[in-house]
Design brief:
By secondary structure, this protein is an alpha+beta fold. Helix 2 runs antiparallel to helix 6 and helix 13 packs parallel to helix 14. It has 17 helices and 20 strands. The longest helix is centred in the middle third of the chain and has 41 residues.
Length: about 600
């Protein structure tokens, strides 16, 4: 429908008013053919769209073309719907004054005195042959401004999207009283259609640019670059962030050889087999490796990719590479700090055993001195007692070996060294700790009971760290029984293989027990119930056990005291080379280093 004056009249069939109607041919059905100059102008505008010319420039050219095609006296303006208002905002109006354009854009779309707003709100053309005599517009501010500038008639046509929504309004104003001929309506409709095509193309381009900008910013923030690798052609396509990660010149040609030039020589042997397996079509790739930049700095990278096929059926991998250097540095710093803490806790624990250790070392030393004196007397006797001297010397050697063994254990426990993984027998580890703390137990009147399962599967871990946990639990149990009176002070150390296939060690005491409100805080760092404690023993013990994929727990006994225990997975046999080969050809491929670690610890 179109409004002529105060009346709405149907537009003749075949003449579109707004909306996308397809090709230029047939748009003027029922109207006289467009001039060749007009068609050339349309072609030029379509070419501007294809070249990505800005929307205001396209609309400005379209306004000029429409003015020339309809009437040189006409002035054309294109206005876009601004949903935030909601109101119109100018896109192009080369023949209209800023004041009149401001009057068109100032009111909201709900304004009744603005024909452009009315056309946008109702999604229908509004045409007035004479605004001076039309009672609908006579007193509107738009009419006052239009008349002041010598405008007497106007046509306002909505610009529709492909789905039928309103994108804006195309306005035509004339200095004389005039109606729209069939030809004019067809030209205006075509102009509105071209304006809509340009708007939607600009919106799509803008959305694409925003999406690309968001993706680029997300990749920058997450230090992640994306790539594609066409296996058949060896063609590599990288994102900008990936160029930055590898420190290559932007848009430089990347090949597998240039990629290899950055990979750390120690990591290439594990990456190369993965690339070869990728050529065979494995579904997924995952690998961690290091690269060396031109300035000599190292970066740790995490690679993931998934195999797919392009439109020609060729194998292609789409993937991402994340720079995890900061994470690795933080993990190494955390591991170093944890190691420092564990060492301090171990020294503190052994410090508490100083009297017991001195006793353990003093006993064999006293025996050595006594045996040496006895041996000397036997050798200076007349006649010398050689046989007795030999036996005494053997006892001295035995005591010397015992002292050396105690000192050796102390050196290992006091030593500050990197953690190393080995097979550990928890029974044997417990006995060595008990050997160091026997005198401490006797001094406090503690009776030790052993309930060690035989045979007991070995575990995989750091022997010294696990002994540190046993020592911490043993000392805690001993301290808990210091003030006990009137009942036996019994400490039980037991081992077993639990129902989940884990090897567990428990330390049970008959001490004063724990108050229920203190239980949640026992593993907090620097929290202690002892007057001279540091509060790091149980915290460190829990950290050590968890680093061995285990858990540490405690519970009140049915009788007096508490039981502390920890359980860690038993060591499993190392997989055969055939199993390893089968694993690397699975649907998910991990790095050689990760695979070896997994198989060794599984």
């Amino acid at each position: 429908m179109t409004a002529i004056g105060n009346h709405w009249a149907p537009i003749p069939a075949g003449v579109p008013i707004g909306g996308h109607t397809g090709h230029c041919a047939g748009l003027l059905t029922g109207a006289e053919p467009a001039h060749s100059t007009h068609l050339e102008g349309e072609t030029a505008i379509l070419e501007m769209m294809a070249r990505g010319v800005s929307l205001p420039e396209i609309h400005n050219a379209l306004c000029r073309l429409t003015e020339t095609s309809v009437s040189p006296e006409c002035s054309c303006g294109i206005y876009l719907v601004d949903r935030a208002g909601p109101r119109l905002r100018i896109s192009a109006a080369p023949g209209l004054s800023p004041a009149l354009t401001e009057e068109i854009c100032r009111p909201t779309l709900w304004s009744e005195g603005n024909p452009c707003a009315r056309a946008a709100r109702r999604n229908a053309a509004v045409m007035c042959e004479d605004i001076a005599s039309d009672p609908l517009w006579q007193r509107s501010e738009f009419t006052v401004r239009a008349q002041a500038e010598g405008r007497r008639s106007y046509w306002a046509v909505p610009i529709a999207s492909a789905s039928g929504g309103v994108l804006g309004v195309l306005a035509m104003l004339q200095p004389t009283r005039a109606g729209a001929s069939l030809r004019d309506r067809a030209l205006i409709a075509r102009a509105a259609e071209l304006a809509g095509i340009a708007i939607e193309r600009a919106q799509r381009d803008g959305a694409l640019k925003r999406s690309e900008a968001f993706l680029a910013e997300a990749q920058r923030l997450s230090a992640t670059g994306s790539f594609s690798w066409n296996v058949a052609t060896n063609e590599l396509t990288w994102s900008e962030q990936l160029y930055r990660i590898f420190d290559f010149e932007p848009r430089a040609a990347i090949t597998l050889e240039t990629l290899r030039s950055r990979v750390h020589p120690e990591d290439w042997p594990s990456l190369a087999p993965i690339l070869e397996l990728a050529r065979e079509g494995i579904a997924e790739i995952e690998h961690e490796h290091r690269i060396i930049l031109p300035d000599g700095s190292l970066r740790h990278l995490h690679l993931v990719a998934r195999g797919t096929h392009d439109e020609q059926g060729r194998l292609e991998y789409i993937g991402a590479i994340q720079d995890i250097t900061n994470r690795r540095v933080a993990e190494e710093a955390l591991a170093k700090a944890r190691s420092e803490l564990w060492h301090v806790a171990r020294v503190v624990s052994l410090g508490a055993l100083s009297a017991s250790i001195a006793h353990e070392v003093n006993q064999p030393l006293s025996g050595i001195i006594t045996n040496a004196s006895t041996c000397l007397r036997m050798l200076t006797a007349e006649p010398p007692n050689v046989q007795g001297a030999l036996e005494t010397t053997r006892r001295a050697l035995r005591d010397g070996s015992r002292a050396a063994e105690v000192i050796g254990r102390l050196r290992v426990l006091f030593a500050k060294q990197e953690a190393k993984t080995e097979l550990v027998d928890l029974n044997e580890a417990a006995r060595e700790v008990i050997a160091l703390s026997n005198s401490e137990l006797k001094e406090n009147g503690v009776t030790l009971c052993l309930d060690l399962a035989e045979p007991l599967p070995e575990v995989s871990g750091d022997r010294v760290q696990l002994q540190q946990v046993i020592l911490n639990l043993l000392l805690n149990a001993t301290d808990a029984m210091v003030g006990v009176e009137g009942r036996p002070k019994q400490l039980t150390i037991g081992t077993r293989l639990d129902e989940q296939g884990r090897v567990s060690l428990r330390v049970t005491d008959t001490g004063i027990g724990l108050e229920s409100h203190l239980v949640p805080r026992l593993s907090e760092p620097f929290y202690t119930t002892k007057s001279k404690g540091m509060g790091i023993g149980l915290f460190v013990s829990r950290s050590i056990v968890e680093s061995h994929q285990g858990c540490l727990c405690f519970s009140a006994n049915e009788g007096p005291g508490v039981t502390f225990s920890f359980a860690i997975p038993r060591a499993r046999p190392v997989a055969s080379s055939a199993d390893v080969a089968h694993c690397t050809r699975g649907t998910r491929l991990v790095s050689a280093a990760s695979a070896a670690s997994t198989l060794a610890g599984s």
